[in-house]
Amino acid sequence: MKKILLLFSFVLAFLTNAQVSTYSFVQSTGTYTPLTGATVLATATSANTLDSAVYPVTLPFNFSFNGVNYSSLNVSTNGFLTFGATAPGTFTSAPISSTEAYSGAVSPFGGDLNAIFNVASVTGNISWAVVGTAPNREIVVQWADFRPTWSTSTTNAYSISFQVRLKETVNTISAVYLKGSYLAGTTAISGTRQVGLRGATNADFNNRLNSTTVLFTASTAGTANTSTQSYNTLNATPGMPVDGLTYTWTPPSCFAPSGLVSGATTPTTASIGWAAPSTPPGNGYEYVFSTTNTTPAVTATGTPTNALTAALGPLVTGTTYYWWVRSICSPTDKSAWVAGPPFTPGQIGGGIATTSNLPVYSCFGYNYSQQLYTASEVAGAIGANNFITKIKFFVAATATTQANYNQWVIYMGNTTKTNFASNTDWVPASGLQQVYTGTIPNMTNGQWVEITLTSPFVWNGTSNIVVAVDENASGYSCTQTWGSYAAGTNKGILYYSDGTNPDPASPPSASSRYSDIPRLQLVAGLLQPCTTAPPSNIAVGQLTPTTATVSWLTSAGATYVLRYRIAPSGAWTTVPLNTPLTSNYTITLLNELTAYEVQVATICGGTQGAFSPSFPFTTPAITYCTASGNFADEFISNVTVNPTGMAQMVSTSPIGTAAPYYSDYTNDPARQITMIRGTSNNTISVTRSWPGTVYNNATVVWIDWNRNGTFEDSERVINEPSNGNAVNASTPFNVPTVAQGAYAGNLSLRMRVIIQEFSTPVACGTFSFGEVEDYSVKLIDLLPCTTAAPTPVTVSNMTATTAYVSWMPAAGATYSIRYRVGTTGAWLPSATGQVLAAGVSYYTITGLSESTAYQVQVMTTCNGTAGAWGASVPFTTPPLTYCPMVGGGTNDHIANVTVSPTGQAVMSNTSVQNGYTLYNTPATLINLEIGSANNQISVGKGWTPGSTFSDAVTAWIDYNRDGFFTDAERILISAANTTTPVTATFTVPATGVYTGTLNTTLRVVLNRNTAPVMCQNPANGEVEDYYVKLRPCSNVAPTPPTFTTITHNSAIVNWVVATNNLNYIVQYRPFGTTAWITVNASTLNGNPPLALTGLTPATQYEVQISAVCNGTPGTPTPIRTFTTRCDPTPPNVTISNVTSGSATVTWNPIVPSATYVMRYRVVGSTTWINVTLPAPPTNTFILTGLSSYVTYEVQIANICNGETTTNPYSNSQVFTTIRVCSIPPPGLTITQLAPTTAEVTWDAYTGTGATNSYILRYRKVGIPSWTTVNVNNTNTYTITGLIELTKYEMQVANVCTGTPGNFTPLYYFTTPTVVYCQMASTVSGTEYINKVTVTPFQGVAKENASVASTYTDYTGNAAKHITLVQGSQGNIVKIDKTSSSGSNTGVAVWIDFNRNGYFDVNEKILSNGPNNADTASAAFTVPDDAFVSMTDYKYVVMRVAMQKDAIPVNCTNFQNGEVEDYTVRIVKQPVVNPLNQTDIMIYPNPVSTVLNVKNISKKANYKIYTAAGQLISDGLILNNKIDVSRLINGLYVIELVDGDKTVQKKFIKE
Predict the structure, then answer these.
(1) How many CA atoms lie within 13 Å of 584's alpha carbon, on the beta-carbon side?
(2) How far apart are CA 733 and CA 441, in angstroms?
(3) Which residues, including other chains, have CB under 8 Å from residue 1074's CB and lie 6 or more apart?
(4) Where are the beta strands (DSSP E) in 319-374?
(5) pLDDT of residue 1432
(6) How far apart (Å, rounded) are the C-alpha atoms in residues 1537 and 1540?
(7) According to the model, what pLDDT value does residue 11 have?
(8) Alpha-carbon distance values, 679 to 675, 734, 775, 878 (Å)
(9) Is residue 1456 within 8 Å of residue 1323, measured between CB atoms?
(10) What would you report as the CA-atom Rg of the chain, rounded to the nearest whole angstrom?
(11) For residue 999, how far is the Cα from the chain centroid?
(12) Residue 1478: per-residue pLDDT
């Protein structure tokens, strides 16, 4: 009980106990009786005096409202009254939906009202009186002459009056209305009013509702506490209350309990409770609980109790339960069911509330939250299972992009904290265990997301639990909502931000605290028993540069010892962990970037076990705070560091493309800075650039000399106040020594560069305008001097013609350097190298060639002694580069550049505004001939639609490819104007130009208003670079042409190119003609070879070629000739005059210089028959010697004269020779096949000699004799008398003028077994067959009980087979039915006695209903000629069907019910005194005509059955002979009956 009370102290009462809602309502029309002699509470004294006021009234007798007696009430001018000590607010105008704390309200016309004052001599008032005599008195409160809505108008006034009548003893409440009227004006007044009752809260209401399209007098029950009645003083609909309209509410005779509470007490139990109504019920209470939220029916019964609490269980963990309770005043008088708050055992928190804040707020990039769950809540969720392996959060609704908020790190901890007292009152990281990190599973709306803990958590059984969630995905997606519950004040705390990812080790001040926290499910088990074995699942996580958290699976009653050391052989540090259930420990004071190993041992019962194997881990590097700019009106374009004695670091970068404006270069080796501790005269310069307007910026550079992760003021090496200079440089500065505080290790530290508009930047955080860059700095000490060559030697900052070489210096050393081209070139500047000044450990090599491989070596001289040259260090110079230019603005731009070279292809490129673009693809390559004139360039200008500016354009080509665009290399100069495009012609110089294999560059610059200046960014414009290929040319003739791959309409022309040939004119013509056909060719297009196409077949051509340079063709080559082949196209082939043995073949057209060949074959064969055809112009041939009714295919091809290879054949022409009568009929097939019949058809013969007669013969496979059928005047026949499941063969032949033709090949078929129609119901859940019983006459009953199914086939279940006797009577079938309450069902049962596959009408043995009886039965007789099962598979089928509201019709599906099929075996009557089987003889066997029977009397009878059990013949045996000649071939059973003696024999008919 103590546990229950503790639980109830934390669960809010369920206040929606629906008392007023149980009042009954009646509308009637009576009489409005104005009060006389009443007590007037107030009278209007001005237009707005009787307004927004409340008047208390003391009652002369107690009135019971909602089960509580009241002796006073409060009357509001706003058309309502209330009960209880708390009065409504004077401005309250929505009394039913109001959340005010009064105990109840009666509202006849609740709204913002005021009384009439002196309009047409009418003034309103509020009064009350008691009418009648005890015990039937009435308290009447009257609002007389009130306006339907607040107004002070005297020109449009409408008056309405109404009363509330409270009746003694019966405690009914009535609202009575007087029809209103206009006192002035006729303008419509309309609105809505709250009419009805309210209980202790606005969740308990009983009100009325009508819309503007429904009469006020036709209201319905309200659906919410905000439901209202519409009114209109002018329009008939909805109108106003009529005279005497009376609403009456009557209280129930039995009130329901109130104050309902519930909650889980363990994962499988719960407790519910309630408070008694003011008049406790005489017979106690009853309650119902369920997993479905459906209110019990009035007739339902629950569990009775006289107590105010009840314990529930066992329950299913994780399942939500709903419950209801009601009062039992007497066996026939019960209150309405009242719903209590639902609860979920095994879950913390219940209900359907949601929150978007906890555990993560998806609308922000980063989150860190903590939520507290009490020990009692945890116990209710997991009981004694304190080993938590999974947690679950309820997902109410997901946001669009889960990837933006699904990167979680989860921590849990035992804590004594009961709430978060402030926004900084976090549970510290030292009290948390990391239990999960990673991507949480995909979430689904309305489902729990289950997270398996990578490190299970141990609850100590007494503490509260904190669950912390660190969400690290940088994006956001609004808005995920989570299932929540009201846990109490400040049970949750949350920090969220788009810019700062909080560190759980030191979280910032929270954004907010919450009382609603996530509903939570825990999956937990019992701890393993204590042993001295090392713990399992040891893991190391939560690594920082100086700490690491070790976790493991703890055991019941165990303590632990942990030890760790620097791997692999440092001294162990041992930590005893004496607190039971300890499952993690945080190691502190570690060194960053250091490898460690840790082990854990278990102490159980005072005995320490062996340590676990080592678990290695490495601490991470330190981290730095973040900083960035949000906008970029300026940027850091260059940072140059000049360390004394070390290589210069030059970092050039463009403007960023989007916020945040921050660049991390710490991992770029080319930007690594190396400095020597203790050196002086080190310098740094920072270059700032502005895309547009120059704004003043401050520049600060820090170097974290002590590597503590913080940029301190003392570490600033540049601290320039805001200025507009392009370059801010430091004064020479010293690198501190270790003694002066410099970092002594060999790890990199960090340099931070910030420029910020106007104000001096700080090292951390974001700001509006500016940029941040980070670099790595390595501090070294000088090495002692030796003659060994320095290593490593680094080559950096290369250009096309220079390279910067540097190395680590030694104290007091001097150095020499040399380099060479490739691996074998001469050493430069000489073999002895260049001697450098003392202390210099770098050198810039100049005069190099671009894209060229080099080697460099360095030699050390120490104390005057030179050492050996070091190993060669290779490097390759990069390609040529040009000064960068980027256009500003977003309007003026280059829309098109078109270059039309002399003798080369045009390059045209259309583009949009992009600042700067390099076009280096083959499609934009410009080919120019050296020395060519009349080349043209055209530049189109573009602007934003609707605007035009005056733009200047200049274009250069770097002809000498020296990396500079000079004035002499300008090819287009266009002054500022709005003309577009602008064009120019230019000549490529014949000398002084680059003639190598690399590309040079065309630069086009557009600038608004002024001419572009090379290497200066156009403020409003654009820059485009294009690759240009400068090509020497020559018009010296190539070699004469040669020809390959000659076809009938094409040929490939080849020639050998002369030096610098670029372009050609190739000319060709038919021999004997004078006009040349000209084709332009170019080596740039892959010529030679050149394909000539569109030639004429069988024609001789002549060809000559001229080289072209700068538009001038040279002397042509000598003419060479070739001849095209004949046209190999196959002719069109036609077939005519087809007979039974011949056909005429014709082909067209006939091409010149060719002969023709033909081949033919039977379709389907693989061998062609070749035919030599007559020479052209003959184009027909008669094929003879063909076979009748055979399909042939024919193809024809030509052979070019002088060749032996046949050209492609034509498509096959297919024809079939005429069919003659002797040919077997084609198309023999079966169209319908049944167990005993087969419908056969074949192609009719109507040709010469046709008689329309045929011979069909068939037999069972393996039987020698045929059954022959003459078929006349049809080509279809149905074979009957076949045996089920038997293989047959058949043939058919034409009858030709009385003579049979040839039979077709054998056609095989197998008869099928009997198949029954399908039949089933759609639904069987409530109406189905639960048992079938068949009792054979004088036999044992066969029963089959079953569950619901739409259709069940029991025919294959031997245990369900039913055996009946042929000719038996008095057999009984009985069907037991299951059906829903009050429903009727019909039953039908059939047995296919004749086994024809159909349930015939005379085979229905039961037809019953529809009715609500539980069973249906009938007696039936098995026919004397019923099919007898002679084999173990040829049985008949019984079908049982039950249908709701109808008798089933066979083969017809229906909605509700069931169908079942059973196998029935019918056997013959038992043989009485059978004959001696050895006395009877039948012969011959096999038999063809007459079967002889021996040793029987003259009165003997016979019956002959097929092997399938079908009776086909019977009669008297005459002269001991039976004629069987008319039987078809097969196996039969003969039954001989001689008086009361019977015998059966088998025989074969052949």
Answers:
(1) 26
(2) 54
(3) none
(4) 322-330, 333-334, 338-339, 347-348, 354-355, 366-373
(5) 64
(6) 7
(7) 35
(8) 8, 6, 20, 33
(9) yes
(10) 54
(11) 50
(12) 52
Give tens-digit pLDDT for 745-760.
888 999 999 999 989 9
Q: What are phi and psi of 660, to 5 degrees?
A: -75, 145
Distance (Å) of CA 94 to CA 18, 81, 102, 225, 616 = 19, 12, 13, 10, 70
Nearest CA to 257 out of 53, 13, 490, 50 is that of 13
- Three-class secondary structure assignment of 891-904: CCEEEEEEEECCCC
> Could you tell me which of 960, 944, 903 has the C-alpha nearest to residue 926?
903
Q: For the chain, give the number of residues.
A: 1550
Under 8 Å between Cβ of 1483 and 1463: no
Cα torsion angle, 98, 100, 104, 105, sign:
negative
Tokens of 264: 């889980």
Q: Which residues pair with 1112 in a beta bridge?
A: 1109
Whether residue 1298 is predicted with pLDDT greater than 80 in this model: the reply is no
Please, is 446 exposed, middle or buried when counting C-beta atoms within 10 Å of its C-beta (0-12, 13-18, 19+)? exposed
Closest CA to 1419 of 1489, 1386, 1372: 1372
Cross-strand pairs, 1213? 1194
User: What pLDDT, on a 0 to 100 scale, did the predictor assign at position 1531?
Assistant: 87
Using one digit for the tens of pLDDT, what is the confidence trace for 906-931? 999 999 999 999 999 999 999 999 99
Read off φ and ψ for residue 431, nearest 5 degrees: -100, 15
Distance CA 999, CA 875 (A): 22
Residue bearing tokens 């004052």: 117
If phi > 0 it is left, if psi is from -120 to 50 it is alpha, else beta; for residue 1430 that is alpha
Contact 295, 338 (CB under 8 A): no
Distance of CA 436 to the CA centre of its chain: 25
Sign of CA dihedral 1103, 1107, 1113, 1114: negative
Q: Find, among 1263, 1303, 1305, the residue nearest to 1282 by Cα.
A: 1263
Indicate the pLDDT class of residue 933, thresholds 50, 70 and 90: very high
Query: Nearest Cα to 392, choosing from 522, 506, 486, 487?
Result: 522
Best CA proximity match to 701, nearest among 774, 628, 779, 757:
774
Tokens of 900: 């039309």
Residues facing 740 on adjacent strands: none
User: Any idea which residue has 């804040």 for tokens?
Assistant: 357
DSSP string, 324-338: EEEEEEETTEE---E
| Residue indicated by tokens 């001789």 | 1100
pTM of the model: 0.39
Q: Which run of H or E residues covers position 227? A: none
- Positions of E strands within 47-156: 54-65, 68-76, 80-83, 104-110, 125-131, 138-146
Amino acid, res. 1472: V
Distance CA 305, CA 327 (A): 10
Quick check: 540 and 617 in contact, CB under 8 A? yes
- Token representation of residue 37: 């002699």
> What SS3 class is residue 160?
strand
List, for residues 372-390, the tens digit of each pLDDT value: 999 989 988 888 888 898 8
Residue type, 1139: T
The helix (run of H) or strand (run of E) holding residue 141 is: strand 138-146
Round to whole Å and give the CA distance between 692 and 769: 14
CA-based end-to-end distance of the chain? 95
Place of tokens 């009997």: 1314
Q: Evaluate the omega torsion of the peptide bond into residue 135 and state whether it is cis, within 30 degrees of 0.
A: yes
What CA dihedral angle connects 68, 74, 76 and 79, to 10 degrees?
Answer: 40
The structure tokens 């947690």 sit at 391
Convert the pLDDT of each residue in 699-715 to its tens digit: 999 999 999 888 999 99
CA distance 1138 to 1194: 13
